[in-house]
Every structure is written in structure tokens, then in C-alpha cells.
TrEMBL record:
Enzyme Commission code: 5.1.3.9
An annotated GO BP: N-acetylmannosamine catabolic process
Family: Belongs to the NanE family.
Protein name, per record: Putative N-acetylmannosamine-6-phosphate 2-epimerase
Length: 228
């Protein structure tokens, strides 16, 4: 069966509906309603964390899902779908794409990303793989490993990129990413206004993921409180 995800989201907005256990909205039911609001607003896709959230969202809306599973392991800083165990479980939900960390940092249990990709290609040939990258070096790594989608998700969130913001210097880093890879690029991470989303698309991104600015009320409310 052909995976139509890339056609479905081209030039559009994907809304990330995530709330970790320490966040006020942590609930699969609430995330499914966030996804419904996203759909009613016109989003083309959803990004979601954890098996139960992905399933609840798939029951509520018929939009394609980028699935991931955030898990902390004691022996690694990698937390976005870090091992083959989480990769398989996320893909088994039937989501269109599985996202995982591609930051070059050591993975739990000494697992190697190349082995994870090979196993996923063999077991889930119709599932797209999205690389959550942080630097140009890791964009090149994701290309070499054959990821289908390059995401900028981890730019600003690793020791190598701490403090960076995708919008710095009129998206200078994003422009470099677009020059570095021929795979579709999805801008993600701190795209927090409609104007920034539009700029990412105009620069040539395939799609944009927006999360907190739409689905994290604590973050949204803080922005207002901070202005007092
Ligand atoms: C760094 C990390 O763990 N990012 C996570 C990845 O799935 C999510 O917590 C973000 O909300 C998502 O990337 C969207 O970004 P923003 O919420 O900034 O629009």
C-alpha cells in the first residue's frame, strides 16, 4: 500500500498534540480532542507521543499521524523513540510516519541507528521514517541512513545546539538544512507564530510542525503572564 503522507501534508500545517506526565493536560482523551480541534481548524496531520495517545487520536480523527514515543533511559540522553522496541511499537499503531532522534548521541543499550533503520525497513516497509535532527552533520547522517523526512526538531535541544532558535537570522539554519538535503524537510521546534510558519514554507519546507504555541496552554498562558 502506498504511503500518501507526504502528498497529504505538502505545504500544510501538522499540529503536535503532546502532553508529558508532568504537564497539566496529560491525558490521551484531551490529546484526542486537541487533534479534533486541529482537524477542524484545517491541519493536514498530527504529531503525537506515546502509543495510547496515538491510538486515541487515530480513533478521533482520520488525519495522518507522525508517531513517536518519548522514553528516558539511564544510559543515554536520547529520548525520542530511542530504541528498536519503541520504534516497532509506534509503527505497529499503523501511523504514517515514525519519528526518532538523529542527533549522533549514543543510544540506550548501545543500539546503533543504522541497525534500527534496517530492521524497520524490513519489518515496516510502508512506514515513513522522520529524523529529528539538531545539526547539519546529523542531517547528512539521516540522509546517508535513508530517512524519508528530515525534521529540525532537536535544533536548540542538544549540547551542540543549546540556545539556538530556528528563527535566528531569518531562519539561517533552516536555509542551510534545505541546501544540505534533497529529502523533504519538515520545520519543527519553536515555530510559534503564523508568520514564522509561513516563512518556513516559503523557504521550501515540505510542511511545518507547530506544537506548544497551539496545544500547550501552560506555555501560551506563561507568554501572557511574562508580559505583565
Ligand atoms: C525537543 C522535543 O522534545 N520536542 C518534542 C518533539 O516531539 C515536542 O515536545 C515539541 O513540542 C515538538 O517538537 C514541537 O515543537 P514546538 O512545541 O516548539 O512547536
Amino acid at each position: 500500500m502506498k504511503n500518501t503522507f507526504l502528498d497529504q501534508v505538502k505545504g500544510s500545517l501538522i499540529i503536535s498534540c503532546q502532553a508529558l506526565p508532568d504537564e497539566p493536560l496529560h491525558s490521551s482523551f484531551i490529546m484526542s480532542r486537541m487533534a479534533l480541534a486541529a482537524k477542524e481548524a484545517g491541519a493536514a496531520g498530527i504529531r503525537a507521543n506515546s502509543i495510547v495517545d496515538i491510538q486515541a487520536i487515530q480513533d478521533e480523527v482520520d488525519l495522518p499521524v507522525i508517531g513517536l514515543n518519548k522514553v528516558d533511559y539511564p544510559d543515554s540522553p536520547v529520548y525520542i523513540t530511542p530504541t528498536i522496541k519503541e520504534m516497532r511499537a509506534v509503527a505497529a499503531t499503523g501511523c504514517a510516519a515514525v519519528a526518532c532522534d538523529v542527533t549522533g548521541q549514543p543510544r540506550p543499550n548501545g543500539e546503533k541507528l543504522a541497525d534500527i533503520v534496517a530492521t524497520m525497513r524490513a519489518e515496516f516497509p510502508d512506514t515513513l521514517l522522520m529524523a529529528d535532527t539538531d545539526t547539519l552533520e546529523n542531517v547528512r547522517l539521516a540522509d546517508e541512513l535513508g530517512f524519508d523526512i528530515i525534521g529540525t526538531t532537536m535544533h536548540g535541544y542538544t549540547p551542540a545546539t543549546k540556545g539556538a532558535n530556528i528563527a535566528d537570522d531569518d531562519f539561517a539554519y533552516l536555509k542551510a538544512v534545505l541546501k544540505t538535503t534533497s529529502h523533504p524537510v519538515i520545520a519543527e521546534g519553536k515555530v510559534d507564530t503564523p508568520a514564522k510558519m509561513k516563512r518556513c514554507l516559503d523557504l521550501g519546507c515540505h510542511a511545518v510542525v507547530v506544537g506548544g504555541a497551539i496545544t500547550r496552554p501552560l506555555q501560551i498562558a506563561k507568554n501572557f503572564i511574562d508580559a505583565l
